[in-house]
Amino acid sequence: MTKKERFDFVISWFEQHVPEAETELLYDNPYELLVAVILSAQCTDKRVNMTTPAIFRRYPTVEKLSKASFDDLFPLIRSISYPNNKTKHLIGMAEKVVQDFHGEIPHTVAELMTLPGVGRKTANVITSVVDKQPNMAVDTHVFRVSARIGLTTHAKTPLQTELQLLKYIPEEKVHIAHHWIILHGRYICVARSPKCGECGLTPACKYYNTVVKKEVAKTSLRALPHQSTKK
After folding, report:
1. Is the dihedral of CA 94, 99, 100, 104 positive or negative?
2. Rounded distance, CA 142 to CA 157, Å?
3. How many angstroms separate the CA atoms of 115 and 112, rounded?
4. What 8-state DSSP symbol labels residue 202?
5. 189 is annotated as contributing to ligand binding
6. 118 in a domain, yes or no?
7. How many structural domains compose the chain?
8. Of 3, 27, 87, 230, which has fewest CB within 10 angstroms of its CB?
């Protein structure tokens, strides 16, 4: 199977079986989404969604958040991973948005990356979710799943993964493909024991066809009755 054929199969399968896919983070506007994505780094969406309501009640706008003190904000995100850094990032992000962008969350990757706590992945998430811009955010799920299936080849960094995916995914499908791959990695193609028996992508999956099928064949051979060579 060629790389293009593999991409075509995967995209077609997702379009048929997962026609709608979106972030599992809960938000009502770009400000809330940005806060949630910053908090989600190395943390589950479930934990973030349990945490953000209290933050948004106390700081409903970026202007309010820009005036928060560390001591006031920190207790609200204590249960999130790396709460010290994320508290500083959120306050710094809000201050810069107010000072440099007139209180409006910027909508380009370059501008978003000038904000504290916002790297390329976060900027890609914001722009693809808010405006459906063709930007591919690469987190651990996207990095792992893309390599397993064979969508990427010898990609050593998130940027290499991003560029390889963008080469084959049609521009108008990039924003949803990001969610397809993330959710697939979160629930089916999990890190330690991928659920290949539940996966509809196995016909095109490089890992399944080069690793799993061989292991199944070996297990089947071992299970066969031993036949003696003696007459």
Report:
1. positive
2. 11
3. 6
4. G
5. yes
6. yes
7. 1
8. 230
**Alpha-carbon distance 108 to 112, whole Å?**
6
Say whether pTM exceeds 0.85. Answer: yes
Closest CA relative to residue 200, chosen from 8, 10, 70: 10
Q: Which domain holds residue 46?
A: 30-131
Choice among 121, 167, 173, 230 that is catalytic = 121
- Tell me the C-alpha distance between 62 and 102, whole Å: 10
Q: Is 205 annotated as a binding residue?
A: yes
Q: Which of 153, 116, 141, 142 is nearest to 35 (CA)?
A: 116
**Is 43 assigned to a binding site?**
no
Catalytic residue from among 132, 139, 213, 231: 139
Residue 75 sits in a domain whose CATH number is 1.10.340.30
- Please confirm, yes or no, whether 71 is among the known catalytic residues: no
Active-site residue flag, 139:
yes
Q: 120-178 pLDDT, tens per residue?
A: 999 999 999 999 999 999 999 999 999 999 999 999 999 999 999 999 999 999 999 99
